[in-house]
Please model this.
Amino acid sequence: MDHFLYRDGILHAEDVAIPEIAAAVGTPFYVYSTATLTRHFRLFDEALAGLDHLVCYAMKANSNQAVLRLMASLGAGVDVVSGGEYRRAKAAGFTGDRIVFSGVGKTAEEMELSLTGGIRQFNVESEPEMELLSEVASRLGVVAPITIRVNPDVDAKTHEKIATGKSENKFGIPISRAREVYAHAASLPGLEVIGIDVHIGSQLTDLEPFELAYTKVAELTRELRVDGHDIRRLDLGGGLGIPYERSNKAPPLPMEYGEVIKRTVGDLGCEIEIEPGRLIAGNSGILVSSVIYVKSGEGRDFLILDAAMNDLIRPAMYGAWHDIVPVKEAPAGTELHPIDVVGPVCETGDTFTRQRPLPPMVSGDLVAFRSAGAYGAVMASEYNTRPLIPEVLVHGHQFAVIRSRPTFDEIINRDTIPQWLEGSA
Ligand code: LLP
Model:
C-alpha cells in the first residue's frame, strides 16, 4: 500500500496534488511520501516484534538526508557501504551504535573513519579485509566488532545482476569454509567476533530462498558456538521484493518474512538485524515527468518524455518494469493504445518500455513512474548534461524540496581547464 492515489481524477502524493508540485519545481522530479516510508519501516519493525532486533535501513536505496533523518527519527539503524554513506548517516543523526558497515571493498580510510566515529559492526567479507581491519583497529587502540558474511550458495531466483548469494558471486566467504575463517578472525587482536551476516540478493519474491539460507545460518550458529565463538547477533538479508507490476501476484509481506526468521533462527537467542532498502523506499516514491512530444513512427508510436535513462536507469540496466500512469486519470472506458515510452537521451537504450498500453496523451501532460523511490535518484547521472532532478518530500498537506536541481553553471564549473589549455579557445 502507498499514498499515491487519485483524488477527483488527479494523482496526489498524500494530500498534495502532483500538478501543484510540478508547477513549483518543474519536471522531471522525484516525490516521496513520508506516510509510506514510515508505514514500510514499521511493517518490518512489527514483523520482528518479540525478537531482540534492529531494522537497519539500507540507505543505498535512497540516501537523501531527509529520508535518512526520517528513518533515524523512527528508531531505525542504518546499513552503509561506503565512507560517503557513513558520513551521510552521521549527518542525518544516526549514532555510531546504529550504523552497520557492509560491502566487499572497505578501505583502510573507511575503517578508520568508522572506528573513530563509532560503529555498530562491520560485516566483513573476506580474509584480507579481516586482516586489514584488525591492523587498523590495533593501530587506533580499539577493537572492531565484526560479523562475517557467509555466502550460503542459495539461488535467490532474482535478476542475475542483483543476486548475491550464489557461490559464483563476489560476496562473502563460502559457508563451507566458515569455521576455518571464524577461527582465523578470533586469532586476530583487533577484532571481536560477534555474529554472522548473510545476504542473498535483492527483489526476492519468494520466501523459500530465505528459508534455505537462514536454516544454514542457524546450523552454522550452533557449530560456531561449539567452536567457542560467542555468536550473539545475526544480520539477515536478502531484500524482500516489491510489487512493481500491480497486475502481477504480490510478493510476500514483511509479516510473512518475519515468520520465516522466527521459524529458522528465532530460538537461538540472537539479536536479529535486517537491512531492507527497496521495500521501505521503493513504493514510497514516484518519478514525475512531462510529455515533450507524441511521435508517430512506422508501425509504432513514441511517447517522448523529459525524463530519461539518466534519471531512472532501472529499465535500461535490468530491463525493469515500472508502472506508468497519467497524472490526470483517464476517464473510465478510455481506450488504451500501445506506445513506446522513451527519453530524450541519444541512445536506443533510453527506452523505459515498449508497446505499453496507455491512454492517449499530448505534449505537456504529466505522467508518473510508480515504485521509483528506491534505486532511482541514487543511481541517476548527468549523462547528456542533464541536471540531476529535484527530490521532493511530502508530509500530509506540506511538501518541501529536499534536493534542488543544480544549475548548468554549477555542473559546468565542476570541470576545470588544465593550465596548458588555458587561453587556447
Ligand atoms: N544489504 C546488502 C548487503 C545489500 O547488498 C543490499 C542490496 C541491501 C541490503 C538492500 O537490499 P534491498 O532491500 O534494497 O533489496 N540497484 C538494484 C538493486 C541493487 C541491490 C544491491 N544490494 C535495483 O535497482 O534493482
In short: The chain has a mean pLDDT of 96.
